[in-house]
């Protein structure tokens, strides 16, 4: 079975007709859904059986994406075993206590042990685990410079921009459209900070999904026949602390968390 490293690898297999036979709005959205394990490759009606056979394991209940993610996480956990967690605490804006690295994630304590296990008082979504471990292993600990840039303007953001829009900004906009006060509630739930209107947004809110990786959420309400809009901005230093794939994954993980909250909220 093929091990997909990211959704772009799946997207490249598709015919990009956006025919919607798979009930996704675009082929890009379908690729993201397969990578997340929400769809099976064979649900694309345009793929040749040979392509599906080469990339799928229909006898398994688990999707390729889910097992890919598990394998990737196991590898990251092994790598954490080689990291000096005390030094990492100093570098990454965390603290070291009883052999454990403690990082504030969305205002909550997350404890990472020498085997790469994560523990917290709140539910830890799988999509958050990978970026956190990557941050511990590869983060340079660069202090944010205070300059906000959209995802597409990050050095390696262009390639991932389409998926980021589909899997992160678009669903987040839907949540904000449906539950307008949810974003404001995030401030209290996750120790967020309200900012002066950034680029004239109706809501500008900064959260820290990782200590040195702030994210600025901007939401423009619908007005005068114009649709609403949602954009996420990252500090210009972000790629020093988190690679682009982890930044994308972190964004999707946040959306998954917010979706759950929105359901409870509703
Ligand atoms: S069925 Fe296949 S070609 Fe059609 S939108 Fe879905 S992924 Fe794209």
Derived from helix and strand composition plus strand pairing, the structural class reads alpha+beta
Number of domains: 3
Number of strands: 9
Strand percentage lies at: 15-25%
Q: What coarse outline follows from CA principal-axis ratios? A: globular
Distance between the termini: 40 Å
Q: How many individual helices? A: 10
**Poorly predicted regions:** 58-62
Q: Which CATH C-level class of the largest domain is it? A: Alpha Beta
Which second-level CATH architecture of the largest domain applies?
Answer: 2-Layer Sandwich
What do we call the CATH topology of the largest domain? TATA-Binding Protein
Order of helices and strands: HHHHHEEEEHEHHEEEEHH
- Estimated radius of gyration: 19 Å
- Spatial strand order of the main sheet: 5-9-8-7-6
Largest beta-sheet details: 5 strands, antiparallel
The distinct ligands, each listed once, are: iron/sulfur cluster
Mean pLDDT metric: 86
- The helix content is 40-55%
Structure in a nutshell:
43% of the residues lie in helices and 17% in strands.
Give an overview of the whole structure:
- The protein is globular.
- The protein is 43% helix and 17% strand.
- It folds into 3 domains: 7-62, 3-methyladenine DNA Glycosylase II, Chain A, domain 3; 69-138, no CATH class; 148-265, TATA-Binding Protein (2-Layer Sandwich).
- It has 10 helices and 9 strands.
- It is of the alpha+beta class.
- The protein has a 5-stranded antiparallel beta sheet with strand order 5-9-8-7-6. It has a 4-stranded antiparallel beta sheet with strand order 1-2-3-4, covered by helices on one side.
């Amino acid at each position: 079975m093929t091990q997909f490293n990211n959704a772009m690898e799946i997207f490249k297999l598709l015919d990009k007709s956006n025919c919607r036979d798979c009930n996704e709005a675009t082929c890009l959205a379908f690729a993201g859904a397969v990578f997340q394990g929400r769809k099976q490759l064979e649900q694309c009606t345009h793929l040749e059986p040979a392509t599906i056979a080469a990339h799928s394991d229909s006898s398994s209940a688990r999707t390729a994406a889910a097992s890919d993610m598990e394998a990737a996480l196991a590898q990251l956990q092994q790598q954490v075993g080689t990291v000096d967690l005390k030094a990492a605490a100093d570098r990454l804006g965390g603290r070291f206590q009883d052999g454990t690295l403690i990082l504030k994630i969305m205002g909550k304590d997350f404890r990472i042990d020498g085997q790469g296990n994560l523990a917290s008082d709140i539910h830890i979504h799988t999509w958050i685990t990978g970026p956190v471990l990557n941050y511990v292993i590869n983060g340079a600990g660069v202090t944010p410079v205070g300059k906000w840039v959209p995802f597409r303007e990050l050095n390696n953001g262009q390639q991932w921009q389409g998926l980021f829009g589909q899997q992160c900004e678009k669903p987040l906009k839907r949540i904000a459209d449906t539950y307008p006060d949810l974003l404001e509630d995030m401030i209290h739930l996750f120790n967020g900070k309200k900012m002066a209107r950034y680029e004239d947004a109706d809501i500008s809110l900064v959260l820290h999904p990782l200590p040195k990786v702030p994210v600025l959420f901007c939401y423009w309400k619908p007005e005068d026949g114009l649709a609403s809009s949602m954009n996420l901005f990252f500090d210009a230093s972000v790629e020093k602390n988190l690679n682009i794939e982890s930044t994308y994954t972190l964004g999707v993980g946040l959306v998954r968390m917010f979706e759950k909250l929105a359901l409870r909220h509703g």
